[in-house]
Amino acid sequence: MTETLMPYDEALAQYEPVLGLETHVELGTASKMFCGCPTTFGAPPNTHVCPVCLALPGSLPTANATAIESTIRIGLALNCSIAGWCRFARKNYFYPDMPKNYQISQYDEPLCFDGYLDVEVDGETVRIEIERVHLEEDTGKSTHVGGSTGRIQGADYSIVDYNRAGIPLVEIVTKPIPGTDRLAPEVARAYATELREVMRSLGVSDVRMEEGSMRCDVNVSLMPRGSSEWGTRTETKNVNSLRSVERSVRGEIERQAAILAAGGRIIQETRHFHEDTGLTTSGRSKEEAQDYRYFPEPDLVPIEPDPEWVAQLKAELPELPSVRRRRLQAEWGVSDLDMAAMHNADAISLVEATVAAGAPAADARKWWMGELARRANEAGVPLAELAITPGQVARVTELVASGALNDKLARQVLEGVLAGEGSPDEVVAARGLQIVNDEGELSAIIDEVIAANGDAAEKIRGGKIAAVGALVGGVMKASRGKADAGRARELILAKLGVTE
Amino acid sequence: MSLIHQTAAELGRLIAAGETSAVEVAQAHLDRIAEVEPKVHAFLHVDPDAVLAQARAVDERRAAGERLGPLAGVPIAHKDVFTTADMPTTAGSKILEGWRPPYDATVTRRLREAGLVILGKTNLDEFAMGSSTENSAYGVTHNPWDLSRIPGGSSGGASASVAAYQAPLSTGTDTGGSIRQPAAVTGIVGMKPTYGGSSRYGLIAFASSLDTPGPFARNVLDAALLHEAFSGHDPMDSTSIDAPVPPVVEAARQASVDGLRIGVVKEFGGNGYQPGVLARFQEAVDLLESLGAKVVEVSCPSFTYALPAYYLIAPSECSSNLARFDAMRYGLRVGDDGTRSAEEVMALTRAAGFGPEVKRRIMLGTYALSSGYYDAYYGSAQKVRTLIARDFDAAFQQVDVLVSPTTPTTAFPIGERADDPMAMYLADLCTIPSNLAGNAAISVPCGLADEDGLPVGLQIMAPVLGDDRCYRVGAAVEKAFEDRWGGPLLKEAPAL
């Protein structure tokens, strides 16, 4: 089915978007939420299971204290109030990948509530209000085999892997976000990006969107310009990258605008995002709201966080990403634009670590945002996944600063390191990339070059010092780039008896 | 005296002293099971070879010099709602027919650690929902006092097995009276410990906030010994209380009510109560007074609402707890012919696998939790629950224990209430408040009703973690009655 879309600018001229984001983050605890099974990703199917996470008759959950602590830390980092007393609740619905046919979640008593997260878009700070942060368990993973869509409808059969069932999941729900106007897609992406960094700084999750350890559900509705009544919203799922967050908002605005402009009505439903087309298709209708029959989980005791403990957790929070960025920007003395570029390239931590390993900030930034960013882009991988460590980058800058390498050689060294040829020093040794510092060897090369370029030598002797460039070039060529160009120039002029 | 008529405490002593062996005791009980089981049908599973192997292992542990507890080598009948890794576990339901759990319930594990020999798994109302075992998918159990009558329920196999001398001890679970009512109508002792005092891990859930494992025995001391053997904190059950087990054995030996204040619950009596039950109850109260207790009447007005509150809370929890029986991972699977969706297979399986009472309660609970009805039903029931707990708190300010008849009537004939759920539910009228409040309560025999000659139970209720008071008062009543009767009430039961 092809959707009619209205061009974005046109859509924004007529309608104002209202956003809302629900983000699920899998916590990186060693064991699952309610049992002792490990949480590591990628194990053979149905090997990380036990009577509890398979919901065998008679089994009971016991809450993972670390997961509760992590959730409170997330809430504190998002400026939330922490409940003094709250409970888990059962969300009842039948689905084969949910072993108990209810999910242990939280309903009207979330662990954390009423917070906010400030994000920066186009140099402006946008405050995203947080409705709630609560703790729940993940479901198993269904794979639908056969059929064309990979979804349960039309599949020949389905298989379920319960390794994921019971992994602690934190759900972070924003309040509705009006007023973003045409920046709605960027705001959504900036929020998801910032949230991911907060999680990383807290060390509570690996937040890998492609592995599903962070998942965003994006709610979008439109209201006609001049109206103050919000429209019907849709909820887009399967948004598996930051870029997709942005694209899905844009696409949904364009789709909804086309429907509204044609006099149609938005159906309240979940929609499924497709990475390939950037479009969404209709999922489950929420018009007839499913009744989850929530009630307090009787198998678990209420959570009563000790206020002193919460205060201690708050005091021990790490520096939050936005604060850290402001500090590093000041320390490094870089412009807003450069800082934003590093942020967007996910390079800040890499530069920071490179500086910590001894490199000057300007050099560290130059290599990561220049040569290495280019290589990452070529390889189509995130910067952090390049096969080079900040320590190795720092070593390369050190070699350049000491005069042992020039930039051209340094690029070759980086290439060698990325190719798995070893450390920078090993690559230098193996590829013979050391600048020629042996005066005797350099002197011999210069003599050869002067002899081979008699005309140029004469011009220099005659005072046309600019002609020395050709001889330096010859020396560099003869030394295969390993000569120190500056020193070569000095020696050539000295040999020709010319002073500047 | 034959081995099957001994008390559990005496059997433990005889085995420890080497006067008999666990194997001999087990064999005697297996013989008794073989003899009377066709009449009683207390068991869903008995594997004699496996029983003797367990008994031999206990004898070997002792021979190897291991220090064993007072019940080592004593046989026990285990309610088929606790998981057992070496026996099938059905919860009395077709939906779990043939299921073998891969793990032992905490109660099962503790029985094994204490050296108890598990004779088999006993019959029950499906998923412990009922008061007669008529809701079992595997046939009804018969009351050894009168085989045409019910043995109580849901733990009816457990009560009948002990009353029929098939086992000296058995385990039960009590959600609304499922230990105390069967104990009362079979003339034995049944105790519902404080909620959280005994672990629910591996107990197939009916209503999580109410389910409580507890002991059956033919006398109060034996019940206390079993109580002590399997109770106590369990990290696998979050609702388990992290506190020492109350001194129940010591209390059972103390057997004195001198100076205790005993409250008679005003709300339990009158219309709907069998005259013979009320007469025996009054006799027990008089007896307590004669033993030196101070008896007063106590009003607990909210108890009147306990039954309706219970029939909202328990079905609500069960509607969710039983959702896991969906044919996907274990148990019965119906209609999986390759053409049907998972949802259809789930529905067909649940339609075929659950009995009518289970379906009734799932529907009641689903309705009570529904959006728009939650506050009026589940929410109100929880408020009543709080009021009942407050009534108990206020009562226990005035008295040490409360007493009432355990059930309004003696054992009713099989089939009499099978088609009348409300009449069936009334069997738990007096027992339900202690489930809602989570406090301890015991039923001990207090004689036979004049009109039918069937056993009547006296319920003794104590505060949360006051389990020892139940045993102390229960043992005193037992001793005084047995002096009067010239032995246990059960000797009045007809031979099978």
UniProtKB/TrEMBL annotation, chain A:
NCBIfam families according to UniProt: gatB, PRK05477.1-2, PRK05477.1-3, PRK05477.1-4
Organism superkingdom: Bacteria
Subunit structure: Heterotrimer of A, B and C subunits.
Matching Pfam families: GatB_N, GatB_Yqey
Gene3D superfamilies cross-referenced by the UniProt entry: 1.10.10.410
EC number: 6.3.5.-
GO molecular function: ATP binding; glutaminyl-tRNA synthase (glutamine-hydrolyzing) activity
Protein's organism: Acrocarpospora phusangensis
Annotated function: Allows the formation of correctly charged Asn-tRNA(Asn) or Gln-tRNA(Gln) through the transamidation of misacylated Asp-tRNA(Asn) or Glu-tRNA(Gln) in organisms which lack either or both of asparaginyl-tRNA or glutaminyl-tRNA synthetases. The reaction takes place in the presence of glutamine and ATP through an activated phospho-Asp-tRNA(Asn) or phospho-Glu-tRNA(Gln).
Catalytic activity line of the entry: L-glutamyl-tRNA(Gln) + L-glutamine + ATP + H2O = L-glutaminyl-tRNA(Gln) + L-glutamate + ADP + phosphate + H(+); L-aspartyl-tRNA(Asn) + L-glutamine + ATP + H2O = L-asparaginyl-tRNA(Asn) + L-glutamate + ADP + phosphate + 2 H(+)
Protein biosynthesis as UniProt keyword: yes
Protein name from the UniProt record: Aspartyl/glutamyl-tRNA(Asn/Gln) amidotransferase subunit B
Family statement drawn from the similarity comment of this UniProt entry: Belongs to the GatB/GatE family. GatB subfamily.
Residues spanning the signal sequence: none
Domain Asn/Gln amidotransferase: 349-496
HAMAP family in the record: GatB (MF_00121)
Keywords: ATP-binding, Ligase, Nucleotide-binding, Protein biosynthesis
GO biological process: glutaminyl-tRNAGln biosynthesis via transamidation; translation
Automatic annotation (TrEMBL), chain B:
EC number(s) on file: 6.3.5.7
Residues of the active site: K79 (charge relay system), S154 (charge relay system), S178 (acyl-ester intermediate)
Lineage top rank: taxon: Bacteria
Catalytic activity: L-glutamyl-tRNA(Gln) + L-glutamine + ATP + H2O = L-glutaminyl-tRNA(Gln) + L-glutamate + ADP + phosphate + H(+)
GO cellular component terms attached to this protein's record: glutamyl-tRNA(Gln) amidotransferase complex
GO process terms (BP): translation
Residues in the signal sequence: none
Keyword ATP-binding: yes
InterPro entries: Amidase (IPR000120), Amidase_CS (IPR020556), Amidase_dom (IPR023631), AS_sf (IPR036928), GatA (IPR004412)
All residue ranges annotated as the Amidase domain in the record: 24-470
Top enzyme class: ligase
One family name in Pfam for this protein: Amidase
Keywords: ATP-binding, Ligase, Nucleotide-binding, Protein biosynthesis
Keyword Heme: no
Gene Ontology molecular function, alphabetical: ATP binding; glutaminyl-tRNA synthase (glutamine-hydrolyzing) activity
Homology family: Belongs to the amidase family. GatA subfamily.
Matches recorded under NCBIfam families: gatA
Function in brief: Allows the formation of correctly charged Gln-tRNA(Gln) through the transamidation of misacylated Glu-tRNA(Gln) in organisms which lack glutaminyl-tRNA synthetase. The reaction takes place in the presence of glutamine and ATP through an activated gamma-phospho-Glu-tRNA(Gln).
Subunit structure: Heterotrimer of A, B and C subunits.
Protein name: Glutamyl-tRNA(Gln) amidotransferase subunit A
